[in-house]
Amino acid sequence: MAFAITQTCCNDATCVSVCPVNCIHPTPDEPDFGTTEMLYVDPASCIDCGACADACPVDAIFPVDLLTDSLRVYAGLNAEYYAGRETAADPAPNFHRWSPPTFDRAIPSDFAPPDIAVVGTGPAGMYAVEDLLLHTNARVTLIDRLPVAGGLIRFGVAPDHPATKRIGETFSRFHEHPRLRMRLGTEVGRHVTIDELAERHDAVVYAVGASSARGLGLDGEDLTGSVAATTVVGWYNGHPDVPANAVDLSAERVVLIGTGNVALDVARILTADPAALAGTTIAPHALERLRTSKVREVVLLARRGPEDAAYTSPELLALAQRAGVPLVVDDADPRTVAAIEAGTGKASLLRELGRETVDWTAPPVADARRIVLRFHSAPTELVGDTQVRGLRVTGPDGPVEIAAGQVVRAVGYRGIPVPGLPFDEARGTIPNTAGRVDGRSGAYVVGWIKRGPSGGIGANRTCAGETVATLLEDITSGRLPVRARRSPIAALAARFRGR
Ligand code: NAP
Predict the structure, then answer these.
(1) Homologous superfamily assigned to 115-211+415-498
(2) Model's pTM, two decimal places?
(3) 105-115 pLDDT tens trace
(4) Distance from Cα 260 to the centre of ligand 1, integer Å
């Protein structure tokens, strides 16, 4: 019996660091770590000790023998990763040898403990906090504009992914750390300026994410019934900025533009059985609306082919295996069928799915809820007078109009500027070098505001590692002087109270 990593893998490599035989790959120092969709256990060298399962922050690792029907496919996926790889005489895969972890983070003892503010309590901010608290003597002020901590864990991860949300418990342990103080409900640029934070801290790490939605610039994008996926995600997660009536589910067909994991999350929630969502963290107003929803068909629209879909394989597999909600491929474009038949890479995941040439001018035919994947269709215009009536897209034989009462743009997130810090308008990020903000001493960035809105939760661990390493290098090299001072908390608290 070996262990296997399954759907909810967060890629943060906690399992890698506890595996005594180096049987989990790719490791953070292997080339494909940055691009892999998940990590894999080598069944040939796994010694069944279960250390990885104990350490996994998102409950993604199980003994192969105990995999449930819907997770059984992961035994094969784990093994497949190692097929054809060199294992030679080394019982563990020898494309990388295990070396014990080292912590080269220490600040020499003759340095005063630095005071560091971390702005943002999402995964990127919390991985930075964890690194600072575990490996240095820094005192941390943790700030968030919302009155509750969690960022994307709380307001981004879908409520039907409780295992993924569980990583929030790992992070919230640090909220109680004796060297950490929290200032929630405090917005940089509104309640406190970047200069005030810099005055009271030796360094400030901005982990503010990418909180706005990318636009498409299409005609009709502002019609009623056209919303961003960020709004839908905030709506079902009870984000304080999103009104309870922000999403209208009175249309029978909803088109989602984009095939990223956010699009899949929204498609899953809009087609879920409300009874199955009761008892999750879903916002009560969203659950209530889902109970009376008229939605019968959700269309996932891709401008490219199935071989280039943006979703990750584990998320697509989970959607395909869900009982009671068929996932169907629109086969009108021969390129779609050819790619699936060729059966390589991501396109092969669709081989077992039903196919249909959908009549897009008519309302959905199916009585029960379903999801349809349509590839090679770039959106060109939203159609309607004041309310969305349809979406015009490219098709194999010219333009096609998909009749739909709701269009959701799931084409990615975008960072917004922090007043006073430089901003790259084209990328929606704060320009930086290995996490150090360009042209602003003492300011650092981590997460989506640093590298753009891509990568799951675990990607932020290595990202935070890089930023913290840069910060500490700046301290130890003297580039960033550490000023001995009393805790900055009292002074900040007095100022916040005044506002
Ligand atoms: P994403 O993965 O970048 O997907 C964006 C989608 O929008 C792609 O399908 C893209 O198509 C499409 N798109 C962009 N511009 C377009 C245009 N002008 N016209 C038509 N389509 C357009 O973004 P995301 O879904 O927001 O996800 C962000 C990150 O969060 C990803 O790394 C994702 O994996 C992660 N995430 C993970 C989970 C999970 O693990 N469960 C859940 C949510 C989010 P092209 O590919 O053709 O550009």
Answers:
(1) NAD(P)-binding Rossmann-like Domain (3.40.50.720)
(2) 0.89
(3) 667 777 788 99
(4) 3
